[in-house]
Amino acid sequence: MRRKLVVGNWKMNGSLAMLAELDAIAAAAAAHADVDAGVAVPTTLIAPAVARVPGFAIGAQDVHAAEKGAHTGCVSAAMLVEAGAVFTIVGHSERRHDQGETSQDAWAKAAAAHKHGLGVILCCGETEAERDAGRAERVIQAQVEKSLPENADGSWLTLAYEPRWAIGTGRTPTLDEISAIHSIARARMRHLVGDRADGIRILYGGSVTGDNAASILGAPDVDGALVGGASLTAAKFVPIITAAA
Questions:
Q1: Identified catalytic residue from 64, 92, 114, 182
Q2: Whole-model pTM?
Q3: Which one of 102, 156, 158, 217 is least enclosed by Cβ atoms within 10 Å?
Q4: The domain spanning residue 78 has which CATH number?
């Protein structure tokens, strides 16, 4: 039985003052012991966030695949661990679109993060054009195949399905469409890592709110949510954690 997981992604938002929002978020997570929760904050806020809400899962939004070197502006897995992060997101659609990252990049980053004991949320998702062309299933299968580490299991890796056209737009796929992609992704993971795939949680991400969270989280094969804008305040994020309980 896979526990529900709700993770916030603050993206390039936040400040030291904004960390006060974590107080109520961490309290809600503690009140729902049957749900796992965490927040991925900007790198500059990891250490102060960990100090503010000890015991609550604080993560990063990206990691470099290399251990160290001439990679200006990048952050290694060891650096994230030293800052107090316990997980990182890799392969997010905004990284793929804005920075041109590939599934192979996501694979290398996931492997580097795992080597240093970080949990990994590995993202996949199709564009609007790919969905309209009837290629969503093939795109997801290819992304999973190219980015899933061969030693993947649910003890450290989570998959997140984020249709790119639903992120921050207010649009969401139907529940049947979400469940269908999650089922396809799990089938592909089973092909790659066998029975270990059954322990890997699959989150849905893309305009998740307190209003639609209960229905999305109740859909077949949806193990939680990766939440963007609605995770920036406790008032909007806590209802999603509650809906997962």
A1: 92
A2: 0.97
A3: 102
A4: 3.20.20.70
